[in-house]
Amino acid sequence: MKETDREAVATAVQRVAGMLQRPDQLDKVEQYRRREARKKASVEARLKAAIQSQLDGARTGLSQLHSALSDVRDIQRSLADVSKDWRQSVSTVESLRDVKDAVVRHSQLAAAVENLKNIFSVPEIVRETQDLIEQGELLQAHRKLMDLECSRDGLMCEQYRMDSGNTRDMTLIHSYFGSTQGLSDELAKQLWMVLQRSLVTVRRDPTLLVSVVRIIEREEKIDRRILDRKKQTGFVPPGRPKNWKEKMFAVLDRTVTTRIEGTQADTRESDRMWLVRHLEIIRKYVLDDLTVAKNLMVQCFPPHYEIFRNLLDMYHQALSTRMQELASEDLEANEIVSLLTWVLNTYTSTEMMGNAELAPEVDVGLLEPLLSPSVVSELLDTYMSTLTSNIIGWLRKALETDKKDWVKETEPEADQDGYYQTTLPAIVFQMFEQNLQVAAQISEDLKTKVLVLCLQQMNSFLSRYKEEAQLYKEEHLRNRQQPHCYVQYMIAIINNCQTFKESIVSLKRKYLKHEAEEGASLSQLSMDGVLDAIAKDGCSGLLEEVFLDLEQHLNELMTKKWLLGSNAVDIICVTVEDYFNDFAKIKKPYKKRMTAEAHRRVVVEYLRAVMQKRISFRGAEERKEGAERMVREAEQLRFLFRKLASGFGEGMDGYCDTIVAVAEVIKLTDPSLLYLEVSTLVSKYPDIRDDHIGALLAVRGDATRDMKQTIIETLEQGPAQASPDHVPIFRDIVVPSLNVAKLLK
């Protein structure tokens, strides 16, 4: 207490010191004293109230404790009285055991009396129930079956309560009602038969299906009631619980599975389209069945059965199982496509699960895949492998068929523009189109893979095509009489190259959305090169055919016979024009190059005739006559090739100008100007060589050895530079070495 007083005094001193820090605060001492007095009075009042409240609570608690003690003592005395009475009544309870047994027997007899009518009428009820089942009166039959089961279960339950160990009486009751289980099984069989035909029954007689569902619902309620009673008594009647609702869904599941499996009417041996038919039947059946279930069956079942959702799951699972079975078979390529198209596209399309009739109950976005990704991938790998083999075989067969056409006695067909062609490009790209259309039905990724595969195989095929075209040309050159329509079919082969190029571009544009597929682009570049090579070889072969016929007439050029009036150039022009009438059936890109090549080659052969010194002019008159003839023939050739090149544009006249330029050198009458004329010729044609100049001077016949040597040496000192647009023509002309040696003498 002293310590507390000291702390209180110290606190008060500190507080007063805080109040009286300035002289002017002394005037307020009385005011401070009154304020502190009020605070003290308030604190004391609150303290007194708190203490009073605690005293009142303690007083109440003590009162309640005294009352509780009194109650405990009263209970103790009552328990003592009860214990005393119980000890006194033990002997009385033992004396009432006979009464207890009598009560039990009375209960059994009461149950027997209650079921007496049913007990004596069991055989009759069994017969009536059997008749009702056979007549299809399922609800009435079930009502009587319930009466039988109720009597049996009631008697057995009482017997179990009286003496659960007495199996003899339980067996006696069970055997007396033995027909009841048979009736239950027979009725269940009828129910399952109705459920198996439920999709038909619901359209013809929905009442029957409703009756079946009502019976199942009754049995479910009885099962629940018996299971609840089991918790109290421990007794369960024989055959319970029946679980008919669970069995109903099992029956429906088996029915759905059987219906899906039973749609295969054909095999591959009997019908090549067996799988397509099988899948189409499944599609139709499933769509029809689910539509009926959605519109009619849901009205026959309680909502908590969720019959449509359960049927949808059953059909989906049955379809998945069936698709797995089909996928595991040894399917052909077209069958794999049919299966994958159906699984990946048809199943979720508006033709099936996405049909408006099934919305909104069926959400295709929530359906699980019918086949796992690994199975789909395996099928696609198998398909690509099989397709590769098939394409190789188809291309080989197409080429063999085309080769047989090459030796026919009749000309090939022409397209709408009159160009010769064979059926090979159409067959090849029709095959590609069919496979790409099929692949597109499955997925964009597969379509791209098939396109790349087609282009790759096309690349290999074109190499074989080139080899066969080369062999065809070589065979003909060995015997030019065979085949009869060689020229026409070689033209068709050339045109096929252009058709192939156009078809490849069209195919890529149609089926390749992005040009990013590097493999496809590289394949096209490679194929374009091969096709151009085939066309070039074909054109070369046709020109070889032309020049074989022209050989005799080309050999007459620049000879004495030619100078005296040979019609060799007339024949050359007629022959070339005649051939080019056939070559008109060549498509424009190749025909233009072929016309230019023919023009160049005729001029080269003409100049070669000059350089071979078949003639040496004897005088100025003879040189003039020969030169003028050369100019006339150059114009004749120019006119011919202008006519042949009509529609191709300009740029081919320069070849004939070379003949005119050579003729000018020959025609020159003043030998002193010969160097200047030759220099002009060399400046125009920088590819002309010394041996060409020597041969040309030898043809003139008036140039001395020194003159030849001087001209050649002078030209060698300042070789002419070729212009960028110069087309070499003399480089292909070889001057015989014997003639060159003679020229320098």
Q: In total, how many beta strands?
A: 0
H and E string? HHHHHHHHHHHHHHHHHHHHHHHHHHHH
Rg, nearest Å: 58 Å
SS strand fraction? under 5%
Low-confidence stretches: 738-745
Helices, by number, come to: 28
Q: Structural class given helices, strands, pairing? A: mainly alpha
Please give the alpha-carbon distance between the first and last residues. 160 Å
| Helical fraction | over 70%
Oligomerization state? single chain
Largest sheet, described in full? none
Shape: elongated
Describe this structure in words.
The chain has 745 residues and is mainly alpha-helical. Helices cover 76% and strands 0% of the residues. The chain has 28 helices and no strands. The chain is elongated, with a radius of gyration of 58 Å. Residues 738-745 have low confidence and may be disordered.
